[in-house]
Structure formats: structure tokens, C-alpha cells
Amino acid sequence: MTYTDSFGKRLNLRALELQNPLCVGLDPFPNLLPDLFGDKTKLANWENFFLEIIEIVGAKVPVVKPQIGLFEPFGGDAIAVINRLSKAAKAKGAYVILDAKRGDIGSTAQGYADAYLGANPVIDCDCITINPYMGIETLLPYVKYAKELNKSLAVLVRTSNPGSKDFQDLMIDNEPLWVKVAEALKPIEAELSDGEYSSLMVVIGATFPEQAVKLRGILKQTQFLIPGYGAQGGSAEGALSGFINKGNHIEGGFVNSSRGILYPNGAKDAKTISEWKQIIANGLDATIEDLARASRNVVGG
């Protein structure tokens, strides 16, 4: 497919069209599947669960994000399931970020890039998360496909987990390592830019709002992918702190919520599919409104 707009611009426009920056993580957590869907150990039941989730959220949020590491314990068939879920989400208008956190060198990096961003991908995603801490060279196969096929890569910069400080906060020439990584990404931001929006994405946790502001000063055209909101303790205001204030709206990032959307209070004990769907829809609307409220506060400020 040929696009006239860059991936970064298309992604941004979808968020503006839907008036929310929500990314819904598709994470099959053990023991959280509602009894309505049957045996929690069966991949087919998880697939049915996520197809129902996509039916509810797919046309209301700009992005969904399958977590490959939580599907892989189900075995080889899980890859095909992720691919079917990705296609279902795209049919609803959502973009798909594969949360795989790949990171390797040379031909191995090329293999990962072929599998997920190439012309004939194993999983039909628009973007894949990448760990850059083996060096910028490990990103280049993904950058090539992002440029040629108008896709994206989401590079881990400042992650939301508590242990991120073990390495990402180490000081080098009076700056933490994560800042050095962000600065090293500037040429890639420029290479994937249409002049206003870059198709590069970076990961910055909602639990680090001050760092998000600093990161925006380094990567002005890059879309942020923001984990850590909700269940991990990040507030809506913190999640939006690195967004760009355009005067009547903010843009420039996507806030991930997984457990808060998939497994809200009461959903596990729902007696009927109709009841379960209503609980999920209500939780989705509440999350969108929470982000909208915080967004209004930013613009109003």
C-alpha cells in the first residue's frame, strides 16, 4: 500500500480524529481471563477474548499493542493468533505496535526486522518495540523498513519499571545514559521525518514526567509511547507531560493501558457476555475521559 502521509503523521491524525491518545495493550495475564471465556490455559479462549476486546475498542482508540512475551508461553500457534488479532485491529482502523523489545546485531537484527516490519511479515504490525542498548547499529534494519515501507520502530529510552534506574540513570559526562541514548536517536528522527512528524517512536514511562519533558526537548518530532499509566502508578497528567501543546489540543504521544482496560473491577465475575461487554466499554470510556480531563488541564494551563 502506498501512503501520501508519513506514518508519524497518520498516527497523529488518527489520535486527533478519535480525540484520544490511548493505546490498549493486549496482554494475556494468567488467571485473569473471565470464566465466561472458558479454560484459561487454552489459546483459543484467549483469542476469542481479545477478538471481543478489539470489537469494543478497535474503532475507539488509535493503537493496540500485543505483548508477544505473554503469548509465547502458549506455544508456536500464538504467533498466528497475534497476526489474526493484528489484522482484526487494523480492520477497525487501529494501528498495531508489537511489543517485542527485540535487540540484536547484524544478521539477527535483520531477521527480526524481516519477520515483523518487512514486506511479508510473520505478524502484520505497523511498529515494533526495540531495545537499543547494544548500540545504534542494531536499529538500522528496522529504520530501513520504516523508511521504505512507511512503518515505525519504538525505541526504549526511559522505561517505567523500577529497575530501569540500574543502568538508564548511570551518569556519563554529567548526563544520565538514557539522555545519551535519546541524543543518539536524533539522526534517525531526522531520517524518518516528513518535516513536521517523525515516524520514530520512543518509549518513556508515565512514572517519569520530568524526564519526559526533557526528552521532548531532545526529540521534538518524535511520537512517545508511554507505559506505566494506571496499574503501574502513573497519573494521566504524568503520562501527558511530554506531549506538545498546540494551543487547542496536545499531541505527540500514545498512553498505554493494559490491565485497566482488559480486566477492570467486576469484569472477571460477569455472568453474561453482554454484562462483560458493558463493563469493558464503561472502563474504556472512563479511561478516555481521564486522559481528556488531563489534556484539558494542560491546554487550559
Task: Name its key features.
301 residues, alpha/beta, eight-stranded parallel barrel, two-stranded antiparallel sheet, 13 helices
Task: Give your account of this protein's structure.
By secondary structure, the protein is an alpha/beta fold. The chain has one domain: TIM Barrel (Alpha-Beta Barrel), CATH 3.20.20.70. The chain has 13 helices and 12 strands. The chain has helices spanning 7-18, 43-57, 68-71, 77-91, 106-117, 140-149, 165-168, 177-184, 186-191, 209-218, 236-239, 259-262, 273-300; strands at 22-26, 63-66, 95-102, 127-130, 152-158, 171-172, 175-176, 200-204, 223-226, 244-245, 250-251, 253-257. The strands form 3 sheets. The protein has an 8-stranded parallel barrel, surrounded by 7 helices. The protein has a two-stranded antiparallel sheet with strand order 6-7. A two-stranded antiparallel sheet has the order 10-11. The longest helix is centred in the C-terminal third of the chain and has 28 residues, at 273-300.
- Order of SSEs, N→C? HEHEHHEHEHEHEEHHEHEHEEEHH
The N- to C-terminal Cα distance equals: 41 Å
CATH topology: TIM Barrel
Number of strands: 12
CATH superfamily: Aldolase class I
Percent strand equals 15-25%
Write out the strand line-up for the largest beta sheet, numbering strands in chain order.
1-2-3-4-5-8-9-12
How many helical stretches?
13
> Could you tell me the mean pLDDT?
95
CATH architecture: Alpha-Beta Barrel
- What would CATH call the class? Alpha Beta
**Model regions low in confidence, pLDDT < 50 over at least 5 residues:** none
The helix content, as a percent range, equals 40-55%
Number of domains: 1
Please describe the biggest sheet, giving its number of strands, its sense, and whether it closes into a barrel: 8 strands, parallel, barrel
Q: Supply the helix-strand structural class.
A: alpha/beta
Shape: globular
